[in-house]
Amino acid sequence: LFILPFFLFSASAGQCADKFEKARLIRFTKLLEVIIMACAFIGFYTHNIVLLMALLFLMGTQSTLFGPLKYGILPQHLKNTELVGGNGLIEMGTFLAILLGTMTGGILIGMHGWGPQIVSFCVIGIALLGYLASRSIPVAVPVAPDLKLNWNPFTETARNIRFARTNRTVFLSILGNSWFWFLGSVYLTQLPNYTKLILGGNEQVVTLLLTLFSLGIGIGSLLCERLSGRRVEIGLVPFGSIGLTLFGVDLFFAAPAPLGLENSGMSAFLAHPGSWRIVLDIVLLGIFGGLYIVPLYALIQSRSETSHRSRVIAANNIINALMMVLSALLAIALLNAGFSIPQLFLLVALLNAVVAVYIYTLVPEFLMRFLVWILVHLMYRVRKTGLEHIPAEGPAVLVCNHVSFVDALIIAGCVRRPVRFVMDHHIFHLPVLRLIFN
Hints:
By secondary structure, this protein is mainly alpha-helical. 75% of the residues lie in helices and 0% in strands.
């Protein structure tokens, strides 16, 4: 029920976000959230399951409307040098909010007698705080005020996906983004059973591992701005995908058999010598996940056409929702077929490597930026001066004193905008290098 509105209303949400002023729409969606939460109090108080299910659908609708707005408004208020940091804060806040909401809700709902009512008051208060915060959002001018709205979800969804496909790099970034949600959904949904059935831990250990995973994503999201040098650095995406594969595979080998624990608490789990390897794998999966996802969001925002940016983001949300549903179906099918949860983790980690190679083969820019990033940040210590003289957009010619064959890579790693190079045709036509230069 919660995810269904993403398929039904994402296309309309993207149109509205492009046509109307975004700050006003954000305030509307946050006010809608307050109303839904107030109705939820009535549902909990009267134990009306039908009403609560309907409100769950409405909350999914509210989230569907909010998605293109929150990602679409960032490029209108942030500079290109701030876009990665802004997305990092959003991703960190999203996962930490999910974590805190899950933990707090679980504790409060278990209170004898008045648990549901206490939860209702809390969510109403949080919704009110969100609405009050939204009133401080500055105006974002409509980017397509003359757009004629199409309320047919099927034809408009197809049109949004066509918009996304006009830029190959953007569309493949959307696929890479959606793959992360496929991967993340597998880990988030299976971690509780993995903890209880494989590790022998109780709810405390479940909370610990979910907390570490969410904190890891938050740390990785914040690291993006520092590692990217205040630019949309897509070279971090291959770096993130390598980490997701390596530590996903290691998680399989970290617990090939139960640890010999049964319903153990956090202290007993951490006292076991094999637990720290699992803890490290979970944290690093989160960190590399943050390094993977944030540059992709920033790339989608920065390279989409301004006139239909929110509709491209809506297409991204539709594909994200589809991939999360597919991840659930795959997990159900494989577990029913006799796969263990560690084997499921191993499979998705290996699939991650296959997906990464496929995307980087189609768009070599990702891999090239990764090689450039490694060169500039790990192999050389580069001192940069005068970058402010290079315009953010428009024509510019760089003429460098040719010192070595890595000049081009170092310049590409230091300049915040894409650079094309002129070279001697004899070098360009060398068998291996020609493939790279193309």
